[in-house]
Amino acid sequence: MKRYLLHSPFNIYHFEATAWTHAVHNHTYFEIIFVLQGNGRHNINGNTFEYSHGDVFLLGPEDYHSFEINAPTEFCFIRFNDSILKEQMADKNNLWQQVLNAVLFTSSQSRGAVVSDRQDKVQLFSLLSILEVEYENKESKYFDIIRTAIMQSMMTILARNLSVQSAQSVVLKDSVEAILVYVKQHIYEPSKLSIEHLADVFNYSPDYVSIFFKRHTGESLKQYITKYKMKLIEIRLLYSQMTVGEIADEFGFIDESHFCKQFKKFTGRTPTAFRKLS
Question: Minimal CA–CA distance to 150: which of 171, 169, 120, 126?
Answer without folding.
Answer: 126
